[in-house]
Specification:
The complex is a heterodimer of chains A (211) and B (377). A three-stranded mixed sheet of chain A has the order 1-2-3. Chain A has two domains: 54 residues; 98 residues, GMP Synthetase, Chain A, domain 3. The relative contact order of chain A is 0.09. By secondary structure, chain A is mostly helical. Helices cover 57% and strands 11% of the residues of chain A. The two termini of chain A are 84 Å apart. About 12% of the residues of chain A have low confidence. Chain A has seven helices and three strands; from the N terminus they run ααααββαααβ. In chain A, helix 1 packs antiparallel against helix 2. Chain B has 377 residues and is mainly α. Chain B has eleven helices and no strands. In chain B, helix 6 runs antiparallel to helix 7 and helix 7 runs antiparallel to helix 10. The N terminus of chain B is likely disordered. The chains are: A mainly alpha (211), B mainly alpha (377). The interface between A and B is large, with 56 and 61 residues. Chain B: InterPro entries: Spore_III_AE. Chain B: It holds the Pfam family Spore_III_AE. Chain B: This is Stage III sporulation protein AE. Chain B: It comes from Desulfoscipio geothermicus DSM 3669. Chain B: Keywords: Membrane, Transmembrane, Transmembrane helix.
Chain lengths: 211, 377
């Protein structure tokens, strides 16, 4: 562009000079000659610029445009940031997936009337988001009680609240709440087996807990 | 219009938390710095100066742009600029009238060349004023192109990161060197080659008006033709390359995603599809954010380009008006010169608007590419 700018500057000077000379010179042949000379000067200026452009290294004039020159982040940085966001999305999806499957498991477990399933937890594996472990939590001693509520309007099976004040607090109460009966244990194992079969998992991956 | 006024692009309530989390992970510092450096005039035109809030507002629909408001603001700017440039119009008209009077009086001098010389001096003064404001308009155009390139260089890494997040890894890999090179190259070509060529053409046109016997108007036409040809070539190459590469990348990404989805659905019994569905739901919130970032970028580009464009077109209008007013006075030369300058400024307007449009298309392609990638999932 500098070459072109110089050419334009030269042309402007030549034209302005030509105009002033045209005005100042006396009428006659001299004017025609001056005009001719000025015209030749214009041609020379243009040809000189053209020759200069042809002889110069054109590639040197082309600005180098590379990504690193612009201060923009490299592809690796962009990919890393994108993958970090992608991981975030994947974690969120895994959380929703885990919640969804846990809901399904709980619904399946609740179909069994002999035990009272209260919670289900699903652990998702890192590979292909396969199910690593399912834990079903049951309440002890309340399975049938919940079912028997309602028809007669009485709430059967609700244990009386016993408040003991003293050193021997809760020995009997602890055992009653945490330890399932053999029937409950058997029913819970049956539920776990059904769930394992439903999700095509080895039976060891479905665990049961009582509370 | 659909991209600029996203009335239907609303985030679902539960997508908000995922989007906020992702937004906090993204580095928006460069764009925020760019917004902070913007003129007060431009900042006041933005609905929100905090980029994160702008993106969030666009995604949730809290910020909606009304076409009527934008139109009214543009009209306001045009009138304000016309009033601000009325002094230039006054100077041009008064000098042109002086020139016309001097030309008519030329015969009254003993030697007619004295009158001619005075007329020439007045003409040169007028040209100096006109070229001064023309140069300012060109400088304005160059600054706008520079600003747009800087904005794009800050915005594109963000968009490409989000493109990777929605699964467009191949597209981002293809686009990364290409888009930066084309944007920088087109900005450089417009700024350093096309705008100077238009300026030189305008100068030669003015010089041609000095004398009927010494014309360089053909050279001016040649330079203008080269500038126009380069603009056409540049826009064709830019859009062609971006569109073709974009589609290729999107198809490649969709194939990768579908293969992974097939593997998950098939090898995890019963609930295999649940995970892909959950993942797609989360990806859509990333997509929403990417679209909001794209719209915010388009808004910024529009803000950067509209005000200077209004200024340039107003100066062109002033030149054309001055030329039209002067013509009946009998000063054909000056009238033609001002008209030519007005036309050249309209070409500058076209060149700057073209850069804005190309960058708008670039953003639209990157944003649309993410949508196609997710759609093909």
């Amino acid at each position: 562009m500098d070459v072109l700018r110089e050419l334009i500057q030269t042309l402007v000077v030549i034209v302005v000079l030509a105009v002033f000379m045209e005005m100042l010179l006396p009428r006659g042949d001299m004017r025609r000659y001056v005009k001719m000379v000025m015209g030749l000067l214009v041609i020379i200026a243009v040809m000189q610029t053209a020759a200069g452009v042809v002889n110069s290294e054109l590639l040197r004039e082309v600005p180098r445009v590379t990504v690193s020159d612009n201060g923009s982040p490299s592809l690796e940085d962009i990919m890393a940031a994108g993958k970090q966001l992608s991981e975030l999305s994947r974690d969120e999806a895994a959380r929703r997936y885990s919640e969804g499957v846990a809901g399904q498991v709980l619904s399946l477990a609740k179909l069994h009337a002999d035990v009272n399933a209260v919670d289900a937890r699903v652990k998702i594996g890192p590979e292909n988001n396969s199910i690593d472990e399912i834990t079903i939590v049951f309440n002890t001693g309340t399975a049938k009680q919940a079912e028997t509520t309602g028809a007669g309007g009485t709430v059967a099976g609700v244990q009386p609240v016993v408040i003991n004040v003293g050193d021997d607090v809760g020995d009997g109460a602890k055992g009653a709440a945490g330890v399932p009966t053999p029937e409950e244990r058997k029913a819970a194992a049956g539920v776990a087996g059904a769930v394992a079969e439903f999700y095509n998992l080895p039976s060891g991956q479905v665990k049961i807990e009582f509370q | 219009m659909t991209t600029v006024f996203p009335t239907a692009a609303r985030a679902a309530p539960d997508a908000g938390s995922v989007m906020d989390e992702q937004m906090n992970k993204l580095d928006m510092g460069q764009i925020q710095q760019f917004i902070n450096r913007m003129d007060y005039e431009l900042q006041s035109a933005l609905p929100e100066t905090d980029f994160k809030s702008l993106v969030r507002g666009l995604a949730t629909g809290d910020i909606s742009l009304q076409p009527a408001d934008i139109f009214n603001r543009c009209v306001q700017y045009i009138f304000r600029e016309v009033v601000a440039n009325s002094a230039l119009l006054g100077k041009l008209v008064v000098l042109a009238v002086i020139c016309a009077v001097l030309q008519n009086l030329a015969g009254a001098f003993e030697k007619s060349s004295t009158g001619q010389l005075t007329h020439m001096v007045a003409y040169l003064v007028l040209i100096t004023i006109a070229v001064g404001s023309f140069g300012l308009a060109i400088q304005l155009g160059r600054e706008v192109v520079d600003k747009m390139v800087t904005l794009m260089q800050a915005l594109l890494p963000l968009l490409l990161t989000l493109l990777v997040a929605v699964g467009g890894i191949t597209s981002a890999a293809i686009f990364h060197p290409l888009i930066f090179i084309t944007i920088t190259a087109s900005g450089t070509i417009i700024k350093n080659i096309i705008l100077p060529l238009i300026f030189f053409a305008a100068i030669l046109e003015i010089v041609s008006g000095l004398s009927k016997h010494f014309q360089v108007s053909r050279l001016a036409g040649l330079l203008k033709g080269v500038a126009m040809g380069l603009m056409g070539l540049l826009s064709t190459i830019f859009l062609g390359v971006m569109a073709i590469q974009g589609v290729a990348g999107a198809v490649g990404d969709s194939v990768t995603f579908r293969t992974a989805k097939f593997a998950t659905d098939t090898f995890i019994p019963v609930v295999g599809g649940v995970f892909s569905d959950a993942l797609e739901a989360v990806i859509r919130s990333s997509l929403l954010m990417k679209n909001a970032v794209g719209i915010a970028g388009v808004l910024l580009i529009a803000m950067i380009v509209i005000i200077p464009l209004v200024k340039i077109i107003t100066i062109a209008f002033i030149y054309k008006l001055a030329g039209a007013v002067i013509q009946p006075v009998g000063e054909e030369k000056i009238s033609d010169c001002l008209n030519g300058l007005g036309n050249s400024l309209i070409t500058v307007f076209g060149a700057v608007a073209m850069v804005g449009l190309l960058f708008f298309f670039a953003l639209a392609i990157v944003v649309g590419l993410g949508n196609i990638t997710v759609m093909l999932h």
